[in-house]
């Protein structure tokens, strides 16, 4: 049985104490809890604080990291586009620099495998350097995903 791993990263426009970032940091716990309640959710990267904001991206301390595992593309897609996450995503320009390179990647893993940050970075690098493949892909290469086409995610 396979599960879907996903990574998305974004360079933050400010820190936790920046009032302009309150809409992002103030909603993290709620959005993370919504993810964990979703049917099809398996796992997400987090530290003892309950989120991943203190986990550094290799080479860029201002990069926010979201790494999670889902039972299917459809389960991830429902979370992204049919929960409170959608409202926060719509405000991404307030919280993150506009990406200049791929910042989102999905790949299939064996059920029970927990991806590491190094593994996730390697998949994103693979997508960036070689384009989509079975080992590293985006929404367009996931035929079961339909909602992204309406919303135009990564």
List the helices and strands and how they pair.
Blueprint (H helix, E strand, L loop, with lengths): L1 E10 L10 H4 L2 H10 L3 E4 L18 E8 L2 H9 L3 H5 L2 H4 L8 E7 L6 H14 L16 H5 L3
Antiparallel strand pairs: 1-3, 1-4, 2-3
Counting structural domains, the number is 1
CATH topology: Alpha-Beta Plaits
- Percentage beta strand: 15-25%
| Morphology | globular
The strands making up the biggest β-sheet line up spatially as 2-3-1-4
Number of DSSP helical runs: 7
Percent helix: 25-40%
SS-based class:
alpha+beta
CATH architecture: 2-Layer Sandwich
Written overview of the protein:
This protein has 154 residues and is of the alpha+beta class. 33% of the residues lie in helices and 19% in strands. It has helices spanning 22-25, 28-37, 73-81, 85-89, 92-95, 117-130, 147-151; strands at 2-11, 41-44, 63-70, 104-110. Strands 2-3-1-4 form a four-stranded antiparallel sheet, sandwiched between helices. The model has no long low-confidence stretch (mean pLDDT 91).
